[in-house]
Amino acid sequence: MVWVLALAAPSFVAAPLHAVLPPPPAAASFRSVPTPLLRAKPPPPPSGPPLPLLLQPEASLAMGLCLLLALVGNRLLTEDLLNSQSRADLLAAVAPVLLTLKGLTDLEIQEREAEAVELDGEEHSWMAGELSAQAARELAWGAETLLATVRCRSVAVWWDGRTVLLRGLLPLSTRQNPDDAVVPGPLVSKCMEKTSGAPEYLPSLQLLPGRVEFSYLPQATQSVLVLPMTTQGAARGVFVLGSDTQRAFKQDEVAWARAVSSRVGSVLSPI
To answer: Which residues contact residue 36 at a Cβ distance below 8 angstroms, ignoring those fewer than 6 apart?
Structure first.
């Protein structure tokens, strides 16, 4: 019993410390270098001889479940149950429960990442020619920053009733007619009507009938993030980000992209 309890002691592995995304750069800086991640030091190696089979989480789960089944079977097959036997069964159940908990603690259960798909289109960069130098510089900074720091492959910007920027992977029809590429549909219009400035996230675009609204993005685009540029409670434009992966934008990436679009909108609003 002692060696079983010793094996059941839970082990803890230091988790990597992910750096918090930085705030939007200052107005004078237009660098889009991603912040490196801070990683914790690996745990020291065990001092004693390794026991690879017994220390594996699968082995702990198997032993714990087998012992629990043995206790349940012994309980069911015993005709005359004594008080002393009941107390012994309770004490004996501690070891398999601890073994099972150890296996569950050591077992790494992670969400399966969706695979990236190949998008049709070519790399393209276009910007409306009648923009001021300040607006063009800010739009270029925002697009390059988002392409470099979040998992998007296409960026489209619509401002004051017209398309002002297209960058990344774009289909042929969009490249041939960039001025009228972005036409706000129900989803984009709904996002712009929000007074809170909250984004509209479509993690699985191909499952939605509204995907036809984003025809200016590659046909196989897997997820879309629509970021309104709100000034004084009203949205005058949106950033539309397209990705080649389902569920591509995590919570911290959405927050960072929202900060970038808000800054670009604040610079464009007085222009």
So the answer is: 19
Q: What is the C-alpha to C-alpha distance for residues 8 and 102, in angstroms, rounded to an integer?
A: 6
Select the more confidently predicted residue: 17 or 164: 164
Contacts for 120 with CB less than 8 Å, ≥ 6 apart: 171, 218, 219, 220
Check whether residue 252 and residue 134 sit in a common domain: yes
Over the stretch 139-197, which tens digit does the pLDDT of each residue have?
Answer: 999 999 999 999 999 999 999 889 999 999 999 999 999 988 999 999 999 988 887 88
State how far the Cα of 145 lies from the Cα of 139, in Å rounded to an integer: 10
Last residue of a domain, one of 109, 142, 158: 109
Alpha carbons 162 and 128: distance in angstroms, whole number: 9
Q: In the prediction, which pLDDT does 159 show? A: 92
Range of 105's domain?
Answer: 1-8+51-109
Domain check: are 81 and 205 in the same one? no
Q: Give the pTM.
A: 0.62
* Residue 105 and residue 126 in one domain: no
69 and 156 share one domain: no
Residue 183 shares a structural domain with residue 55: no
